[in-house]
Amino acid sequence: MEKLQANVMKDTGKEVSEASNKEIFYALTSIVNEEIVPAWVATQKKYKEKNSKQMYYLSMEFLIGSLLKSNLLNCGLLPLADLALQKLGRNPEMIYAQEHDAGLGNGGLGRLAACFLDSLASLQYAGHGYGIRYRYGLFEQRIIHGNQVELPDYWLKDPYPWEHRKENEAVHVQFHGKVHMLQRTDGSLEFKYENTDKVMAVPYDIPIIGYENNVVNTLRLWSAEAYFEENDGIEGNHKYFHELDHQHSIEQISGFLYPDDSSYEGKELRLKQQYFLVSSTIQHVIKNFKKDFQLPLSRLAEKVVIQINDTHPSLAIPEMMRILMDEERFSWEDAWKVTTKVFAYTNHTTMSEALEKWPKSMINYLLPRIYMIIDEINERFCQGIWFDYPELRDKIPEMAIIAYEQVHMARLAIVGSFSVNGVARIHTEILKKQEMKNFYTIFPDRFNNKTNGITHRRWLLQANPKLATLISEVIGTQWIKRPKQLISLLKYTKDRGLLEKFDQVKLENKKALANFIFDRTGITVDEQSIFDVQIKRLHEYKRQLLNIFHIIYLYNELKENPSIDMTPRIFIFGAKAAPSYHLAKEVIKLINTVASIVNYDPAIQGKLKVIFLENYNVSLAEKIIPAADVSEQISTASKEASGTGNMKLMMNGALTIGTLDGANIEIHDLVGDSNIFIFGLTADEVLNYYQNGGYLARDIYHTDDRVRKILDQLNKGAFGLHDMEFKDIYYNILYHNDPYFVLKDFEPYIETHELVEQAYRDRFTWLNMSLNNIAYSGKFSSDQTVQEYANDIWKIKRL
Ligand SMILES: *Cc1c(COP(=O)(O)O)cnc(C)c1O
């Protein structure tokens, strides 16, 4: 506390009592920084002494959220900080809330990268993240008259206390220009680039702190800055404006994060961002290798492994080839041998709108040398199929990296990597059997599964301290370092006295969320209600629409018979839609419109409330998840690669209502039928409908009165200001034949929700189920996931 007081005085010249929350926040961050900087240096030194193999995690997104609280937690200073702040008359949460979330990701993919960094450091692995320091993160969402409105997220408005600019480690990245091919005297080819546009990549390093182990790893984010060559031949005033213009267009490269989740936009600037990330990182990787290890580059793979998070960084493969050949004078064959031993690729989706393809003309224009290399990789790969796999000859057009004027990034990533992994068991099976089956025939050993995970430190210890404390009272604290030991909770699932304590914790968390909801929306919710939560990006495949249809159905039932005996339910949503995703935005409008009717209808006596919390992000997730009773994981089977929200909610004692999709299947396998609510089509059934037809949404519209009523209400303005307000949803279901099977799964969903409601009435059965979920959730700690990557793919050892 004295230190905090002294820091406030030093920084602001004020007594603590005079200081603002923000000033105290900064004083606290500088204490943490003092603590970690020596450990940061020491960690790098230890890795060097031990000759540790380095794992580089390349990702266009790192959704790290806010760091003060998790840094304090991992340094073991959180209780002390809480106490000091309280003694100074401050509410610790108000101080922690001063930090603006680093929203450098869209959703699950970026959050996964953040959880992995936490686990890598906590398990003492030499693993570091590489990404882009976007000046604007994912947009801030406001809901105005029920509609999503996007505001820019200028998260750097206040100085960001965790980043360290390392200007002396800047590198140059080159775009455009011409490539000249020359023959050296020894007959080998030399490639020279002319008239390229050079951009400076300046690293900003963020320390990633391991849990109570003095390990500090690095998340390095590259920022694009202008680089002026002395003699560019432009003079005077003209030069000044030219430079400003030039500077602006360069800074745009790290200007903002593209807000598309699980889909891509073929914009040139996005391609520039991707190459900017991979070129700066690969240059750095090679420099580090030369500096740290006295080994020839041909042995790179012994000391370096690079994981690429989805295809977005897959240009790293041709970039590695370029540097090895053009700068290090490797032959093609030698360069390829090294490259394909270094890269491992994680696939995150099989949905066609998300599979990246770039026009070959765009790559050729922006990155001419890289294009030549991709072309050569493609030629050799296709020839290989032709000669070695004659039975696959007619499949070449669907396997070629360059086909029909497009470069297929997933194919490039598979061909250039030694490992290809899916992110949940079913997802990996679908990759092997369907989407990538021809590649699986050629490279069966490359394919492997690594089910996603979440850091239990942030999502349980930090977000839900009351639950964490209670767990430690019951089974001791070993679970914190070995989350699988949560399984010991199984011994207590019948202990009524204890279950009541768990109930009490949940109730307190629900009260806290109810207060938060009241502050944000002015709506009162009763903490005795069922808190039913669906928080995730808004996507058709995630089927928020099915959820809101069920709510409309309940509302219709209550209107017909207000005396129905029903446990009051609060349906809580959080979801951002990509700004250009029209249908997703219409669903947001529908949820808010239904909310505005249901929440103010006295006839239903508060039995139903609908809350849409705006600007869903990591900090909001940390508030909602500890208070959830029911976790909605209702994607169309086969579509959700894994999901991680499902794991966070399970770990906090929520019961899942879900389809057999992604990691829901693995949750189901662990907890068993009696501790989860499964419904709906299976992935096989869905894939079968897609392949063979046989589903007619209109049939359900005509035969199910409940469904017809809802759709007619949408069409006739019952929930809108005017008729046809939600016409695009209506048309999508009836005229585009309900591509995500909302109507098909409607009846089983309603029936399963009835089971949920009945189960909730039996307090001890419910609490028993809830505790079962917490007990089995240790399996989904990202410590487990990272351990598996480390053993099977990365081949790295703990410090
Ligand atoms: C965990 C998380 C996600 C991923 O949620 P899913 O339900 O798996 O889609 C998205 N956004 C945030 C902020 C998260 O914390």
Automatic annotation (TrEMBL):
Protease is among the record's keywords: no
| Entry keyword annotation includes Glycosyltransferase | yes
Which CDD domains would you find in this protein's record? GT35_Glycogen_Phosphorylase
Cofactor(s) for this protein? pyridoxal 5'-phosphate
**Cited Pfam families:** Phosphorylase
Domain of life from the UniProt record = Bacteria
Please name the SUPFAM superfamilies in this protein's record. Answer: UDP-Glycosyltransferase/glycogen phosphorylase
Enzyme superclass (EC): transferase
Enzyme Commission number(s): 2.4.1.1
Where, subcellularly, is it found?
Cytoplasm
Q: Which UniProt keywords apply?
A: Allosteric enzyme, Carbohydrate metabolism, Cytoplasm, Glycosyltransferase, Pyridoxal phosphate, Transferase
One GO cellular component term: cytoplasm
Q: Which residues carry this modification: N6-(pyridoxal phosphate)lysine?
A: K648
GO BP annotations, alphabetical order: glycogen catabolic process
For this protein, the record's Gene3D superfamilies field holds: Glycogen Phosphorylase B
Gene Ontology molecular function, alphabetical: glycogen phosphorylase activity; pyridoxal phosphate binding
Q: Can you state which reaction this protein catalyses? A: [(1->4)-alpha-D-glucosyl](n) + phosphate = [(1->4)-alpha-D-glucosyl](n-1) + alpha-D-glucose 1-phosphate
Matches recorded under NCBIfam families:
P_ylase
Protein family according to the UniProt entry: Belongs to the glycogen phosphorylase family.
What is the documented function of this protein?
Phosphorylase is an important allosteric enzyme in carbohydrate metabolism. Enzymes from different sources differ in their regulatory mechanisms and in their natural substrates. However, all known phosphorylases share catalytic and structural properties. Allosteric enzyme that catalyzes the rate-limiting step in glycogen catabolism, the phosphorolytic cleavage of glycogen to produce glucose-1-phosphate, and plays a central role in maintaining cellular and organismal glucose homeostasis.
Q: What is this protein called?
A: Alpha-1,4 glucan phosphorylase
Q: Which organism is it from?
A: Perspicuibacillus lycopersici
